[in-house]
Amino acid sequence: TMVPVGRLGEGLGYMALARIKRPEGLRHIAPGEIGKVIGLDRAPEVRTLRQKIHWMAENGQPHEWAKELSKSWMDDDPDMAGYLYVDGHVRVYHGSGVKLPKRYVSRQKLCMRGITDYWVNDAIGRPFFVVSQELNESFSEMLLKDIVPRLLDSVPNQPSREQLDSDPLLHRFVMVFDREGYSAPLFQKLWENRIGVITYRKFVKEQWPLSEFKKLAVPGPHGESSEMQIASREITLQSGGTSVDLLEVRRLTETGHQTAVISTAKRLATDRIAGGMFARWCQENFFKYMMQNFDIDGL
Predict the structure, then answer these.
(1) What was the pLDDT predicted at 1?
(2) Model's pTM, two decimal places?
(3) Among 38, 40, 105, 112, which is least packed by CB within 10 angstroms?
């Protein structure tokens, strides 16, 4: 049972690579064979592994480690860190020990008890960090309280205070999220920190004339581009006594539908705003991949 913690960490890494999703999965694998991979005579028993994981969670400062790891990833690829995607993923709780509040689970189309994990990814789906919420806080409250301070501290290559003062339209970085974050007060509070926003517009009624749309090469997250019919206008969004100046970008689909995207980052080109919004599918793919390969709902 005396398994070194460092060697245990390696063992957990090998388990992840082998898609052994939980410690109980070791019961179905020859302990001698997986032990040789880890560097031990045999793999630790499930009970021992559970005890060591509990010790690491209590004494290993996992939050500090995750914070340093996130900052290291951003520093390694600062261009990707300039566009941050935020979305929630509900981990359903099936136990009876805790009465967690119910929340809507879109993939099952049901309200179920669970915890909402808000993931921060880059444009190709790589995760920077995750914030878990047991209470039913609003998306705006969670974003401003738990995510924005961390990003202001860790995102590299932010403009200096002198640059921000000299250019009133310059942003520090851009956050991309879906309609859950559609809120003029939220846009305004984020812009007070000079954080740009890209999201879908809600309550679209009027249609723009087809003559306004022009064919543009919209860049994708991997350097590829797609031709789209794009139009843009400067608009003012008013809600609850709050007024925010935005750039609205619309894509005309082959069926004639106009997809409306809005952004407070008015220094961005029209094609970059459209490409940034339509790259959200990478984060959806990340959730699907993590559920299938690493059982993030069971962590």
Answers:
(1) 43
(2) 0.87
(3) 112
